[in-house]
Amino acid sequence: MNEVWKKPPIPLDAYLKMVGHEVGVSSWHLVDQGRINVYADVIEDHQFIHVDPERARRETAFGNTVAHGFLTMSLMSIMSYEVMPVIEGTTMGVNYGFDKLRLLSPVRAGSRVRGRFTLTEATLRKPTELLSRTNVTVEIEGETKPALVADWIGLIYFA
Fold this sequence. Notes:
This protein is an alpha+beta fold.
């Protein structure tokens, strides 16, 4: 079971009061070549810019291999588990998608990234269903430009 479910839950009204505020910043997560290689195997994308360090150094402006943009995006899950609260009575939460997602900077192998989360909307669509919208910025340690920005939508269900 993911650690997020071990956090003490908060009341729905407390969650609603977080709208418009930064909820938190995750810990740093290493994006090393091993992680990139495993991800490349999972999605069957072995483009040299991701998996061939020597060729990437020679033939790209990145100077190194870079993570797949979708790998960086996928790390938002663990980052959100670290930061976003669980609401009392929640039975499950699901990823509902994105209204906007932009990949702004490459994440070079060996970099660390973290997520900054601001709750921008929380609307009860039904008595047992909450639409939650979160602005996420994934920062790259030591760089001024983020790896990505996203308007992430989730649905939270209650018993």
